[in-house]
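task queued by scheduler; priority normal; single chain, no ligands, no partner chains; default sampling; output format set to C-alpha cells
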Amino acid sequence: MAYSTAEVVDTVTQDQDFISRTAIREIRAQIVTLPSIRAHRLSNTEFSKREFVLVRVRLANGIEGIGEAAVLGGPRWAEESVESIQAVVTRYLSPALIGCPAARPAEVAARMSRAAFRNNSAKGAIETATFDALARSLDLSVTTLLGGALRESVPVLWALASGDADQEVEEARAKLATREHRDFKIKLGFASPEADLRRLQKLRDEVPEMRRLIVDVNQAWSEADCRRYLPILKELQVDLIEQPLPGDDFEGMARVAAQSPIPLMVDEAAFSHREITRAGTMGCGSVYSLKLVKSGGLMALSQAARVAESSGMELYGGCLLEGSIGAAAHLAVFATLPRLPWGCEHFGPRLHVSEIVRDPLVIEDFHLRVPQGPGLGVHLDEDRLRDALRPS
C-alpha cells in the first residue's frame, strides 16, 4: 500500500506499531573496492581504484536500507578512511542506534552526534541507509520523505583529471558526442600552474563545444598564484574556480574573491553550518559545494543548502566520487531544492569499471536522472557485491 505525504506524517508521528516495526535491529559496514576506468588525479593524491564503505541497516520489519561512505584514497581529503569508517560504524554508532526507530530520523541523528564527533562520512552513510529502509517500509521514495521532488533530473558535468591533455581532449569529445556531458571540471594543482594552464589552453582550443568550464585547484595555489593566474583563467573563459586556497584561509579567499572576475566556489573551507555562514559573510565565494561527506546526513545537507543561500551563495551539487548509492542519496536531496543553478558533478559511478547495483544511474541529454521507486531507487546486485568486497 502506498502512502500520501500527508499520511506519512500522520503514520510516522502517531502509529506506535509502525514506530516499533521500524526499530533498527542491525547495522553492517563492508569495505568495497572497484577498479577505475582511468587514473584520477588530485593535488595531493592519485588513484586507479575506488574504495568505499557499504552500510546496511536492517529494521525490525525485516526491510533493509543501504548507504555509502566515500573517501578519496584514504584520510587525505578529510580525516576518515574506509578502515576508520568501518570501525566507527561498528564500534560506536551501531551500538548507539540499535532499537532506535527509523521513523524518528531526528533521534537517529541526535544519537549519532552523541556517539561520535564529526566522522561525517560514517554518519551520512548510516542516515542514508536508515532513510532508505524507512522509505521502503512506506513504499515511498526518500525524496518524498525529504519534502518531494521539484525536478526529475539534474545537469551533470564530467571531471577531466588524468593530467594527460591529449587523453582528456579525446575523453571530452566522447562525452559530448554521446550527449552525456557538455559541462566539464578540470582538476588543477597536481602540476605547476604554468603546466596546468597549458593543459587548459589545449582543452579550450581543441574542444570548443564545452559549454561551461570549471577549474578545481584543490587548495593548491597561494594568494599570489591567484593574483598572477586569474587573468589567464578569465581569458580562457573559465566560469567558476573551486577552492584555490587552503580551506582554513578564509581571509585570503575573501581577498581573492573580491578581486576575481570569475566566481569562486567554497568547498573544503566549510563543513558545518557555522563555517558556511562565516564563508558567506566574509565573501569567500559566491557558490557553495554541497556534499554529504561535509554535512554528515541527508537532513543536514538539505539544511546546508538553505544556510548557504541565506549567506548569499548559489548552490552546486558536489561529490566525493561516490558510486550509484552515494550519488542516489545526494540526488534525493538535490531533487527537493528550489534552486540548483550549477547542477551537479555526480559522474562517479561512470568512473567504475563495474557496479554493485542492479539499476545504475542514467545519464542522458547532459542530465542525471533522479532514481524512481521506493527508497533511494537503487538495489544491490549481491553477486557483483561479493566480487567487490574486501576480504575480512
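post-processing summary
- The chain has two domains: 5-139, 153-376.
- The chain has a mean pLDDT of 94.
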